[in-house]
């Protein structure tokens, strides 16, 4: 069920960027673990990875975040510090505050957990051409969330640079970072 969505998202991503502005990304307002707001202005000046997921994800989220962590760890610390990663939880009912931040930091000390209201998340998901669907029909507490699995790499100006999936080898991510850092 997830593979057709990933294929569709990949096709959209492969369309490229227009000269008059990004087709992936845009304004957003979310909330950090401490409750403070965060906007697209946080992308300015650093290369930023953005990943949409949820902390109870059993497979693609931990795989993607571990892959990115491996890619970053292959680089010198000074270059790692020129990047940041936002793990955007699409499940704000379960992912909040310290638990969300702890989950992100489990993978790498530069990862930041953020979330927001359903409306804020939906707006950002749409801007990034991502996807998610929460299914509480089986169990309102232990429900699955179907979602796209794409690591978006945004430039220091907040514009789309590249993307990677949970199947991308860490070396490919490291190589791309070395090209642009």
TrEMBL record:
Disulfide bonds: 57-61
One Pfam family named in its UniProt record: SCO1-SenC
Thioredoxin domain ranges (all copies): 1-181
Any one GO molecular function term: metal ion binding
Residues reported in the UniProt entry to bind Cu cation: 57, 61, 147
Domain of life assignment: Bacteria
Ranges annotated as spanning the membrane: none
InterPro entries, per database record: SCO1/SenC, Thioredoxin-like_sf, Thioredoxin_domain
This protein's record includes keyword Disulfide bond: yes
Keyword tags: Copper, Disulfide bond, Metal-binding
SUPFAM superfamilies, A to Z: Thioredoxin-like
Claim: Metal-binding is one of the keywords in the record: yes
Family, similarity comment: Belongs to the SCO1/2 family.
Protein name as annotated: Protein SCO1/2
């Amino acid at each position: 069920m997830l593979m057709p969505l990933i294929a569709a998202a990949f096709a959209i991503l492969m369309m490229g960027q227009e000269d008059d502005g990004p087709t992936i990304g845009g304004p957003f307002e979310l909330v950090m673990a401490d409750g403070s707001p965060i906007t697209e202005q946080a992308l300015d000046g650093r290369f930023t990875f953005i990943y949409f997921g949820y902390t109870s994800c059993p497979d693609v989220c931990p795989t993607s975040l571990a892959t990115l962590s491996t890619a970053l760890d292959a680089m010198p610390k000074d270059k790692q510090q020129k990047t940041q990663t936002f793990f955007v939880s699409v499940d704000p009912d379960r992912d909040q505050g310290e638990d969300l931040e702890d989950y992100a930091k489990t993978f790498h000390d530069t990862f930041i957990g953020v979330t927001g209201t359903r409306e804020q998340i939906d707006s950002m998901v749409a801007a990034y051409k991502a996807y998610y669907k929460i299914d509480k029909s089986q169990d309102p507490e232990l429900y699955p969330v179907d979602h796209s699995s794409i690591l978006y790499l945004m430039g220091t100006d907040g514009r789309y640079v590249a993307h990677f999936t949970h199947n991308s080898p860490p070396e490919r991510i490291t190589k791309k970072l070395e090209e642009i850092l």
